[in-house]
Amino acid sequence: MAAIIETHELKKDYGKHQAVRGLNLSVQAGSVCAFLGQNGAGKSSTIKMLLGMVHPTSGAGRVFGHNIDNEKESLLIRQRVAFVAEDKRLYDYMTVEQIVRFTRSFFPHWNHDLEHRLLDQFELPPDRKVRQLSKGMRTKLALLLGFARGCELLILDEPTEGLDPVAIEDVLQIVVSLAAQGTTVFFSSHQIAEVEQVADHVLMIDRGKLVLDAPMDQVKEQYRQILAVFPEPVEARDFHLPGIETVRTEGRTVSLVASHNVDSIVEHVRMLRAGSIDVVPLSLKEIFLGKVRARP
Amino acid sequence: MFRKPNPSSGVPIYVQLKEQIRHAIETGALVPGDQLPGIRSLAETLIINPNTVIKVYRDLEQEGVLEIRHGLGAFIASRRRRRSKTEELRDAQRQVREFLEALKQQGLDEGEIRRLFEAELAEEFQRR
Fold this sequence. Notes:
The complex is a heterodimer of chains A (296) and B (128). Chain A has 296 residues and is α/β, with parallel strands linked by helices. Helices cover 34% and strands 29% of the residues of chain A. In chain A, the strands form three sheets. A six-stranded mixed β-sheet of chain A has the order 7-8-9-4-10-11, sandwiched between helices. In chain A, strand 10 and strand 11 form a beta hairpin. Chain A is elongated. Chain B contains five helices and two strands; from the N terminus they run αααββαα. The two termini of chain B are 39 Å apart. In chain B, helix 1 crosses helix 3 and helix 2 packs across helix 3. In chain B, strands 1-2 form a two-stranded antiparallel sheet. The longest helix of chain B is centred in the C-terminal third of the chain and has 21 residues. The chains are: A alpha/beta (296), B mainly alpha (128). Chains A and B meet through helix 6, helix 7 and helix 8 of A and helix 2 and helix 3 of B.
């Protein structure tokens, strides 16, 4: 598999604020890659750099092998990428039909079938002015314009924000369908359960740095929570082992999150004479919370 | 036919789907020769990543549960062929052991046997 997106020590400062602090990403062709992080973690700044909308302060990045910080190459990138921005900016004075026709004229690989299907499925009124659409409808329209472009790479920034559950399900289904046809999808989201459902790779960013970069299945298989009860009160410093991500102690009980090495950790806990030991799987949401809360 | 996997359960989605297919075979909902949905269609129905479906089909083919007929799709394998990987490996191990024993009987020493094996393996897998 080839990397479609690659960055090396990518940095972005806004004045004194370091939004992105040395990011090394790699997104493989054909994958659905989720990009998770809190507000202000650097997700949108990263996406804007990839698309040539802001210049990196330092570091390098390539999309389809083109340099993101070179104006001519950036144009080549944008021809092959469909981007749906977080703010879903659209031409307000056009009607739904006009903006679809207008957008379509720029893209030779426009997917007419998908356009018709989505106009119908999203129940978008063709004659209504964009200005008069509800927030949910604007989002649907912006997604339609992105999905139907027939691009090799789809970058979505918070694609399902403001949508009702039915529309979210529709959107996820289209993502899956496009992925099955070979489109690479890179999307940021706060909706971790959705991400868990459709992504095969997950990137987590916290305060401008990558804190997790792994295949989804691997994350699910390797991360475990270990709960143990001891005869005597224990302290966090008893639990310094490779693989332990977070330690929370409360009197005689301890809760550990392990990213790997679970067997040895359980063995260690047993040696500390734990009375009961439970090993349970973690959802992506719990892993995410552990990552962004564990402030070293 | 299949339920939507629970993404937040902590069990990887591919494991959940594999279990569902195995269960459908055990209960007779799927019988040898039955065709499974195409990758795209199953991914769309369950709203899961298509690579997950590919992984499941590939794993089950390895285990002899499915047969992938190229260009046609995935089918439930006949019972005769559905031997677990462990059984297959155990079988193979026994054959190798017997064969080694026979070579030793003929008077070959460890180094000679090892070199013969390595030469054959090198040739076999380079040719591919």
